[in-house]
Design goal:
Low-confidence stretches: 2-6, 15-21
Strand content: 15-25%
Distance between the termini: 44 Å
Number of strands: 28
Largest sheet: 6 strands, mixed
Mean pLDDT: 90
Radius of gyration: 27 Å
Amino acid sequence: MFVRNLTLLCLALVLPTVAAAQEPPMGPLRPDQIAFRALFKEMVETNTTLSSGSCTLLAQRVAAHLREAGFADQDITLFSVADHPQEGGVVAVLHGSSQSAQPMLLLGHLDVVEAKRADWTRDPFTLIEENGYFYGRGTADMKGMDATWVDALMRFKRAGYHGKRTIKMALTCGEETTGAFNGANWLAKNKPQLIAAAFALNEGGGGRTDGHGKLMVESMQVGEKAAQNYSVEATNAGGHSSIPIRDNAIYELAEALLKVRDHEFPVKFTDTTRAFFAKAGAARDDELGHSMVALAQDPGDEAAEAIVSRDRLYHSMLRTTCVATLLSGGHAENALPQRATANVNCRIFPGESVEEVRAALVAAIADPRITVTAQQPLNPVAVPPPLDPKIMEPAEALVARYFPGVPLVPTMSTGATDGIYLEAIGIPVYGVPGFWGDPDGNGVHGLNERRSVRALYVGRDFLTDLITAYADSDDAPQSAIAGGVFHVTPVRPVAELLPLALAATPPAESGEFRPADLVELTSLDPTIRLDIRYASTRNFLGTPLYSQARAFLQRPAAEALVRVQRSLASEGYGLLVHDAYRPWYVTKIFWDAMPPDLHRYVADPAEGSRHNRGCAVDLTLYDLRTGGEVEMPSLYDEPTERAWPTYSGGTAEQRRMRDLLRHHMEAEGFAVYEFEWWHFDYRDWKSYRIGNVRFEDISAKP
């Protein structure tokens, strides 16, 4: 989490100094604080490094504490897998009083970064209190928060407290080591119903001092990037080094990496980063501050972007970034290299997929001799949670009460946490404020890690109050427009619906059908552009449903769509596809997630969708001259009368564009759906069966 610390340091530098007092020493501890300290000490002193520790042991100790507090065995789940017996975790459930309020989840990782006793001033696995700080591996990242979650559940249970919401807690292993068994990812894939929740609270937020005890800012992490490694490789037949040639794998790789270095991904914003740049920029009365505000208002302001991007951290917050980190090449000193390989580490902006970034690297390198391969593990698309007032306002109120005059600022981490795995199954994750640290990072991931004693105790009280504030609130399904996307709060969490949909069976069909022949649209005509909403968060459920941003149709429909593209080009427009073939299980999720009064806008899975048959496409127009999407009378997937093809409102130009699209589509055998101007069915749709094959199982073919 070191990158998060950089983000908070940057915040502390741009925001005005507040009149907060120096940290006073702690007075005598209350009985509950004494018990909390003992729990914290046990957690720090239980070694949970990958090399020599055991998350499983600590999870078992946590479970024992919960049982002592009154938790029943059926509300505690210990888990591990056979080939990683020491990397287990624990899930606990405190039931709420409401049948309608959706659960909340407290997320934490038990594992810590390696720490060698010989390198440390103090034993890293002995909790030492000295000069107002607790020292030890995990004191800051993140056993203080883990202890807070456990302590809160124990106290709630003993006091008989039950908020409206059920409170779940998941403490897992594997967050600190790429390639290790990751408990959060395992739960999301194998036990999604166990952790299903309306939202989760996690690490990633927190406060920053000026280095002298004065608290400058508190932050709420609302979104993060996804980390992904790519292998960039050049291969060659090689030969004797006494006869050099230009066709050299090392030279080819070097040239490719220079192109990676020079490639700039486009500027993008989430609601969080737009709010961050606007607020942080307004706090500065200088060129950088003015440019931050201008860029938040207009992402196309190239002059403002050039100024803001001079700051390395801000440059990264604005886009996906990729950088070469490892090199390997050649096989002998006296031979021409047969292979040269580099690792390129990318931090992918929320909403972008691993494949989209790989394709961008291939296009930037533009050399068929170079291969670009995404390395395992493949991380899911980073899903930015909504900047929800129901999350932000209780936190803002508590920050104002605990830390008068200190601002709470939403931030997006350029690093990554385990939250990415929960967000991939529809659980928004927020990195909470409460604790704080110093500008030097407090030794996180390094030597002599520490946490301010006052920060631990005050942060623990703050977070306990924050849990109850959320647990005592209720929520109801609602619709809203945010960021140009129509959102519907699902009646059940997508995390609960996904395993049910995957286990379900499409309706049986009788009769004669044509064999499926799904063709990838861009393989027939690369000028057809894609904006596959269900492979990103920019859809009405706010979570990815597809693992890949691809579009397929049955061959006759695909060929007809290519003809539409060519006819539109003569008028200066092209097709922008939002969705085409859709696996049946996704249709079932849509139906089960949508409030009943909006069911007319989604297909009944008992009958299947024309999308499932590979003969329906959702699309709009883009301007060939500017590349921009044209305006239509409604948003895509908007369940209102504005979406009807016969809607008479909107501007004359919006209606003209809608009707132009319809005219060209109908000329090639497509019919518009009566409730959606963007949805078109091909005339042969009845000739194909309902399909349920996933995108990754469809081979690309021309």
